Amino acid sequence: MPKVLISDALSETAVNIFKERGVEVDYQPKLGKDKEKLLEIIGEYDGLAVRSATKATSKIIAAGKNLKVVGRAGIGVDNIDIPAATANGVVVMNTPYGNAITTAEHAIAMMFALVRQIPQANQSTHAGKWEKSAFMGAEVFGKTLGVIGCGNIGSIVVDRALGLKMRVIAFDPFLTEERAVELGVEKVELDGLLTRADIITLHTPLTDQTRNILGRENIAKLKQGVFIINCARGGLVDEAALKDALDEGRVAGAALDVYETEPAKEHALFGHPKVVATPHLGASTMEAQENVAIQVAEQMADYLMRGAVSNALNMPSVTAEEAPRLKPFIALAEKLGAFAGQLTQSGLKKIELVFEGDVAVLNTKPLTAAAVAGVLKPMLSEVNIVNAPVLAKDRGVSISETFRDDADSFDSIIHLRIVSETQERTVSGTVFAGEPRIIEIKGVDMDAGFAPNMLYTTNDDRPGFIGALGQTLGEAGVNIATFSLGRSAPGEQAIALLAVDQPISDDVLSKVSALPHVTQAKALVF
Fold first, then answer.
1. Residues 305-324, buried b or exposed e (16+ Cβ, 10 A)?
2. So what's the pLDDT on residue 407?
3. Residue 250 annotated as catalytic
4. Which residues of the chain carry a pLDDT beneath 70?
């Protein structure tokens, strides 16, 4: 039974979901703040569920010897070292939809609070003042809203703003023209948004590309009297530059829910008369907290129990419906890769996959990752389906996929071709009766299943070879389970693939290699 640690406060519903789906759960909501204790016990768990208090650092992840998945109940993953997780083969998931509405609504609420000076007026009125003329606001009707980031949350903000009869322009490198038309938004470049928007709201992740997207240079381009709202991530706005722009009057006001350093108990903008500040409340509603807790528990349980991958940041997604159908093909791809990888003697340059027939219309990204993992496994013992594509890329190995609707002789075929510094090798396989099988090696037709221990030989097609091979193995006490043969043409190259009941020792392999007409002999392990 897989075991999950919840180290931050989550809804009790999440605990129940794990239990109902067969996952043992350890709920320690204060553990996330005790780094040493977390480091001490993390090795016991297959999964770690967190919110924002737990810092899943490279040290924590490395100590998680059994760790397979880290799930974030929320969208931001700044507290998880994703490169370290990937390198260690740990899937990182978030829940991008559970708090989307709540965060979008908070941005809209902040916009109204900002342009109508509601917090300032509230404080003044509670103090017994009646400063009606001091709080002259502005309408949002007819104003141009600039949305930076038009994903899950940004698109909801767009919808609400259009309902308020605002004009909406958006900058997002991943927003297609078709999607922009569907949303009813005008797609623009960043400079165009900066100079046209009356109000700017940010809804983009914090990355190397987006850090200080509203930095001093871009703030200088803003329309005079603009309002800025940031309910996304601290670091998107240069806070020092923003203060200067507020003091100078270029920016009429700013509403901030997030900060470069959190918790932000002291800040240069706190107390500024033109700033509305909230303590990272974007996802703080009962509905959102319940939603993200449910989603992270469902996603992690589905992965640990069924192999389904949802909202992963470092691995292709596999739906719960796809997982059973993909499972035998993932096994086939991994074994084809392992076969080719064990026979490769020099540095890899290319890994090419061709998917034929029914398999070509499936979600092939996990299959490609599995094949690459199989190829690399003999060289890198720590490789798995999560980190294989990254490890291949780091080593300069190119990966390609090709798809063909029709397969010649089977419903589905996976062809694998690897190119090394000194050779190239091809192997093809299919799934028959739910089990992976090899159907071609180096252009030679074969029909062989996989076994834990196998012997692969190539030889000149001459009479007596099969008997000599059988005799050699028999004298060494190696029992043959299956024996598959193929040849390119009579008298030319032949291939034998044998399943045996015990590992092939180096001594036995040397005797097989010394047989007449043998050109290669290799013990294989699956």
1. bebbbbbbbbbbebebebbe
2. 66
3. no
4. 381, 407
Q: Is 280 a catalytic residue?
A: yes
> Residue 381's pLDDT is what?
67
Kindly give the interhelix angle for 286-306 and 100-115, rounded to the nearest 10 degrees: 150
Give the pLDDT of residue 455: 97
> What is the pLDDT, as a whole number, of residue 174?
83
Instruction: Identify the sign of the CA torsion 4, 102, 198, 151.
Output: positive
Q: Say whether 51 sits in a helix, a strand or coil.
A: coil
Among the listed residues 233, 298, 334, 415, the single catalytic one is 233
Supply the pLDDT for residue 316. Answer: 82
- Of 20, 44, 262, 382, the catalytic one is 262
Q: Residue 123: its pLDDT value, please? A: 94
Active site residue 517: no
According to DSSP, the β-strands at 444-449 and 424-432 are unpaired
- Which tens digits make up the pLDDT trace of 280-334? 999 889 999 899 999 999 999 999 998 889 888 888 888 878 888 999 999 999 9
How many Å apart are CA 430 and CA 413, to the nearest integer? 5
Neighbours of 407 (CB within 10 A): 18
Choose, from 280, 356, 437, 440, the residue flagged as catalytic: 280
Identify the structural domains of the chain with CATH numbers, from first to last. Answer: 3-96+287-306 (3.40.50.720), 100-277 (3.40.50.720), 317-450 (3.30.1330.90), 451-526 (3.30.70.260)
How many other CB atoms sit within 10 Å of the CB of residue 514? 10
